[in-house]
Amino acid sequence: MSVPPPGIDPAHGAYSVPPPASKPRTTLSVALEQSRNRLMVTAAMVAVVFSAIGVKLVDATLFNHAAEPRPRMAAEVDAPPVNRADIVDRNGNLLATSLATQSLYADPKLISRPDEVARKLTTALPELDYKDLLTKLSGDKRFVWIKRNLTPKQQAAVFRLGLPGVYFEREERRFYPASNLTSHLVGFTGVDNNGLAGLEQQFNKRLTTDPKPLQLSIDLRLQHIMKKELQTTIEEFSAIGATGIIYDVRNGEVMSMVSLPDFDPHNPTGLDPDTLFNRATLGVYEMGSTFKIFNTAMSLDSGKIRVSDTFDTINNIKVGRFTIREYHPFRHNLTVAEVFQESSNLGSVRMAMSLGVQHQKSFLTKLGMTRPTSLELPENGWPLVPNPWREVNTMTISFGHGMSVSPMHTVNAAASIINGGVLHPPTLLKRDPAVEIPGEQVISPKTSAMMRRLFRFVVTDGTAKSANAKGYVVGGKTGTAEKQKGRSYARNSRMSSFLGAFPMHDPRYIVYVLVDEPKGTKKTYGFATGGWVAAPAVGRIVKQIGPLLGVQPVDEASPEVINATYINTAGQTTPPAPPPPPAQPKGSTVASVPPAGNKPR
């Protein structure tokens, strides 16, 4: 068998080239191949990323409207809601709200160089004390407060420091947009956001469990007017303080309540106690002649005394070594109407004594004068009531001495005297019109109607002519009480007040002003009594708030007003007939006047 020569394929008869011998792979070639593979993978990844970016750009520029990005609203920020409800006035104006803040604390165990951290923090927050802060940061505690409720600017300054062991904690801070204007009403909270005074304290649980705003009966517009007029009066008469109340006699809502001096509720610490003191509700004072409102109503409502009855106002009354006399002596005896009009002490005493001690005590108790009012404030004063209640107490109480109550007591009780005789509990909350107003009949409607006439008589012909506001039919009663210092009364230290109401033919509101220790001026001839000091302020207030409250001015000489408010010194309530027109002389002729727009023929 023959063997084919090399290179010939026996099956095909053609030459076959043998494969060349493979070269051995070196380390360099392997490394180059791996690098090439990695580069390809990286290039592919970069291509994918840039492709995605390109798609986004195309989508943003071609398929969407070109515009600036919409800023996020405050309500969209992913922050937990505040934990304390707002307080608003009757018209929805914000009086108190909570803002989220950041507080600064530290863990001293995580601070290696407390001196350096303390130095940096006092640079960012200059109000901090370096030595006190260094002591805190050098201690063994794991938690110390550095500063509560930082402002955004302060937070940013600390944040830029990047201090280890120093942290922020989200808290809340109470903010009062009306500031001093409602400080004694709304009160304030502490650093832990718990109520410490005013409505913040009274409704602390309600404000932390119910997110619905707490709506008050207060009208912020009336607050502005009341404070302005009180401040003007304090400055004019160099007084040490004052308080004022505007009150709805129909439902017991307090629409304004101001006490001066006031304070900033954002920073109530370290203040003079007199500044924090609420004269309207916590202060209890001998009210002077405004108490004759209740003495007169008690007398008339008893059925034993008529408004035309006469009492001895000439002879002084001696009680032991003391003598009760008139501020200005009278030369004749006065009727009940005149006793109220002229503010007679002797007449008031004899009216009270004709009814007796027990009758007076029962009547004033029925008016709520022997217990704190039901007003929703923790600062609610207890009346100072005589115990035992003797005959001498009945005498002095009849003209406003020997018993101390708050201005809120006086206003609430006086409202029942003129509103038809119903005592409504006072409130700082806006009443629901669908809910029946609570109330108790304390005097008869007939007595109430007579008291309205007497109120008006004091302004038209009595001690408070300066309170008149034309068109608003103002009535009221002045009061001046010497302040007791030690065991005696200081003659030149007094409380001067006026309790006004309007309109007297259909009472709606009481405006009360009390001024603490006013000094007489040249303009007032040295007098600083209620008629000279407080009555003019009430008149100015009525003129300003009447339009805001929807009270339309009326013609005070109209039959409707006169018939509802008239009374004279004799106690007669029927107004005199208008005088007849003057008679024409005999033989005279009266020229006829043609109707407007027509010419005489």
Describe the protein in words.
There is one protein chain. Helices cover 34% and strands 18% of the residues. The chain has helices spanning 27-63, 114-124, 130-137, 152-161, 183-186, 198-202, 204-209, 220-236, 273-276, 292-301, 336-342, 345-355, 357-366, 391-398, 407-418, 445-461, 530-548, 559-565, and strands at 87-88, 94-106, 144-150, 166-175, 188-189, 195-197, 214-215, 241-248, 254-260, 285-286, 310-311, 317-319, 322-324, 334-335, 404-405, 422-423, 440-441, 475-485, 488-502, 509-516. Strands 1, 2, 3, 4 and 7 form a five-stranded mixed beta sheet that branches. It has a five-stranded antiparallel beta sheet with strand order 9-8-20-19-18, with helices on both faces. The protein has 18 helices and 20 strands. It is elongated, with a radius of gyration of 42 Å.
Shape: elongated
Low-confidence stretches: 7-17, 64-79, 589-601
Instruction: Please bin the fraction of helical residues.
Output: 25-40%
User: What is the average of the pLDDT values?
Assistant: 87
Q: What's the helix count?
A: 18
Supply the helix-strand structural class. alpha+beta
Taking the alpha carbons of the first and last residues, their distance comes to 170 Å
- Biggest pleated sheet: 5 strands, mixed
Q: What value does the Rg take, in angstroms? A: 42 Å
Number of strands: 20
Q: What amount of the residues lies in strands?
A: 15-25%
